[in-house]
Amino acid sequence: MSVRSRPAEDAESATADPAPGYVARAFVGVSRGFWEGRTARQAWILTFSVVALVLVNLGVALLINRWNKFFFDALDQKDTSSVALGVAVILGLAVAAAGVAVSQVHARMRLQLAWRRWLTRSLIERWLSERRFYQLTIVSGETAHPEFRIADDVRLATEPLVDFAIGLANAVLAAAAFFGVLWVVAGSIRLGPVVIPGYMVFVSLGYAALTSAAMVWIGRPLIRSVERKNAGEAQLRYELTRVRESAENIALIGGDDDERARLDETFGQLAGRWMRVITQQARMTWISNGNSILAPVVPLLIGAPKYLAGDLSLGELMQVATAFTQVQIALNWLIDNAIRLAETLASAQRVVELTDALDELDASIGASAPNETIVLGFSPDDAIHIENLSLTQQNGAIMIEGASTTIRRGEKVLVRGESGTGKSTLIRAMAGLWPWGSGRILRPRRSTVAFMPQRPYIPLGSLRRALLYPAADDHRVSDDVLRTALTRCGLSHLGSRLDEEDAWDGVLSGGERQRLAFARLLVHPPDIVIMDEATSALDELSQGRLLGFLRTDLADATVLSVGHRPGLEAYHDREIHLVREDGGGYAEHRRYPRLRQFWNRLLKPPQDGAPPG
User: Fold this and answer.
1) Scanning 116, 333, 411, 523, which has its CA 20 to 30 A from the CA of 383?
2) CA 90 to CA 327: how far, in whole Å?
């Protein structure tokens, strides 16, 4: 086995913020599978239901607009019976409008939930498959906090986007319909010798263009500001979570003040980003609020001369005013929803960044080139075979090159070496966590593997679940077996708490967590045990008692472990010692004949009857 280094790239290329159009197209590409896969039938039924309700809602709005002419003409003519009829009609229209609105809420929210469920499941499945959740922590860079992107940004992208699509469709249809009302009812106007047909249509277009231009000009920087604000929120949540998870360590070393100062700094930056959003949103409010007051008044002022001249009845004037307002609502809908659109695009961008990071991760591990990644396969016998294995860092720097060895069934191998020589990386490659490199790792077919890191994972739930993890649903194991395993590993005081649910990851000490990991081995003995500093939190006596299980209960298990503490060699058959030169460069056996002999002696499996290497 040999190791050499390659300098990493120091320069980082700056990337510009993607354009909103790119973000929208990329997000559609990520999420459109909801309408194409197994959920297509449900998706299209909900979509067509929403579209149908939009059309029905538009029909009700046109009827209400027509009611304005009928009712106000009746008032103008003091026709009591028609006024009474108008009251009855508007009550019926109100019930119909409410019924359509309720149906729209059901259809819209069901579509939002179904789409979010599909996209969330899709991202979680991709994130958790092929150990990407671990590998992403190495290559993510600024694409951090995938949990927040999946939980928060998917919701903030999908829910408003459905609202946006419905609102846009309603705006386009309403604008077209009420343009017709303005053209027909308002008629033409004479300015000197010029007659302008449908003049109110041109007035509404000009007014909408003026207000829209003002909103665009003032709110242009808002999308970027909202994206920065959302990123700041995610960073604050992440840092608060880190403090909670590391509360004991922070308290022991007295890091309260430092954490407080850091959180104050993070929140100060977030507050600054919020202030920019607030300032821009307040500026846009000048236009939106002013428009809400003027929009109903403008058509009355413009149509007043025709009403006073007798060319329009009071009912027609009110119908025109209502139609004008509906047109303004439709034409200004996009501008009025600029803030929500900005938040939607910002969240969509964060979802797209996560999928891009997963795509880049797949590319970096050579998804399309088998010779550029580590291949995990099945061995022809009951041994583990490492064939021409090379391990590299994610940036391409070589740590281990061309290693080949065989670890026989039941053999216990200890991996040692200085920091940075690739010990933990070798263990992770054996466990299938490290894909960067080349070569093959062949494990016996149908073999079970237990990976024991320095800090074992304790799932949420009962102590029984933690002890049986990952086979937490195995009901065949009796309480006596579980209590015996706990007692043998020095956890007899927990035997009566098997079904007690607690935050065991925080309740158990570091040593107790490592003892629990050994108890798991006794409950479900694996074929292969891969350990990485699995006894670092234990005293030597406890370490010896637990490692003694490797010679008794786990005698048939193949063990590969990383460790630094003295005395570990007594529990292993041979040792792989990773070495590098004092000058900082990594040793390479091809250049050093004596070192090559050293590697050959260490990596060659001991022959029958020969003492361990």
Assistant:
1) 523
2) 21
Question: Torsion angle, CA of 339/343/346/347, rounded to 10 degrees?
Answer: -170
**219, amino acid identity:** G
pLDDT digits (tens, 9 = 90+) for 34-53: 888 888 899 999 999 999 99
CATH level 2 (architecture), domain 372-603: 3-Layer(aba) Sandwich (3.40)
CATH of 118-359, one of 1.20.1730.10, 1.20.1050.10, 1.20.1560.10, 1.10.1040.10: 1.20.1560.10
Residue 328 to residue 317: CA distance in whole angstroms: 16
| 354 close to 157: Cβ distance less than 8 angstroms | no
Cβ-contact 366, 353 below 8 angstroms? no
Evaluate whether 302 touches 247 at the Cβ level (below 8 Å): no
Domain with CATH 3.40.50.300 in the chain: 372-603
Spatial separation of the C-alpha atoms in residues 512 and 529, rounded to whole Å: 19
DSSP 451-497: EE-SS----SSBHHHHHHTTSTT-TTS-HHHHHHHHHHTT-GGGGGG
Q: How far is CA 75 from CA 67, 313, 491, in A?
A: 12, 11, 88
Largest CA distance in the chain: 118
Alpha-carbon distance values, 588 to 385, 422, 585, 599, 601 (Å) = 22, 14, 9, 10, 15
**111 contacts 47 by C-beta, under 8 angstroms:** yes
